[in-house]
């Protein structure tokens, strides 16, 4: 899992308008953008240079009958992240349909398969850990790269805390609590100890917090 930095909306209104225009086209030159925006081509080029540095636009040369080729600007794949999507709603609706058609067993089976894929990927990374500290650290880093904004800390010699400040499947988890239970079980399986969820986003907490004790004594796990 490589670190992936999400694109963010440009704070400049003109640059956002440029992105909107490019989204609705198959590519535009600086002159064409200037005509649509009602500003100079030089001003447009400055905005485009910024967007290009941010990895939000790409250019290709376009042949002209005479003169130098014009640069045609198009959105990059990264820029597509800036536009609204409803993947969470789509997944939730599909799972609701599956629940209605085949019952809760099939829904849980599907969620369990996803959890198993995540567990297998993280387990591969944990194989290089030389201590329990490193196992917790690698697990937290892996969850962070999956979009959970996860951080970890060591509370004492045998107690750790992993805090996840974002849930990329929050809408799914709200409708199907098994997703949260499977996540907690994944933590237990990967670390080989009991864990306790001391804070939960879905019950009003500011994060999902897992207390991990590096002992064989059960921690009163909460799923």
Automatic annotation (TrEMBL):
Residue ranges of every copy of the HTH arsR-type domain listed in the record: 4-85
CDD domains recorded: HTH_ARSR (cd00090)
One Pfam family it belongs to: HTH_11
Gene3D superfamilies according to UniProt: Winged helix-like DNA-binding domain superfamily/Winged helix DNA-binding domain
Coiled coil: none
GO MF term set: DNA-binding transcription factor activity
Protein name: Transcriptional regulator
Organism of provenance: Thermorudis peleae
């Amino acid at each position: 899992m490589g670190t992936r930095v999400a694109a963010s909306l440009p704070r400049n209104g003109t640059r956002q308008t440029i992105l909107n225009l490019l989204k609705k086209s198959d590519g535009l030159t600086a002159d064409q953008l200037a005509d649509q925006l009602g500003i100079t081509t030089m001003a447009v080029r400055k905005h485009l240079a910024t967007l290009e540095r941010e990895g939000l636009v790409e250019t290709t040369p376009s042949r002209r009958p005479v003169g130098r080729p014009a640069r045609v600007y198009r959105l990059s794949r990264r820029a597509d992240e800036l536009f609204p999507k409803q993947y969470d709603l789509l997944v939730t609706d599909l799972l609701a349909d599956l629940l209605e058609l085949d019952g809760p067993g099939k829904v849980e089976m599907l969620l369990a398969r996803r959890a198993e894929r995540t567990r297998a990927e993280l387990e591969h990374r944990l194989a290089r850990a030389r201590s329990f500290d490193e196992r917790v650290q690698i697990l937290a880093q892996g969850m962070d790269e999956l979009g959970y904004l996860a951080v970890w800390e060591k509370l004492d010699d045998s107690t750790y805390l992993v805090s996840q400040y974002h849930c990329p499947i929050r809408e799914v988890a709200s409708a199907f609590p098994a997703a949260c239970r499977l996540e907690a079980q994944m933590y237990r399986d990967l670390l080989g100890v009991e864990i306790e969820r001391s804070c939960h986003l879905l019950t009003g907490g500011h994060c999902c917090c897992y207390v991990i004790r590096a002992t064989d004594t059960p921690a009163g796990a909460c799923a």
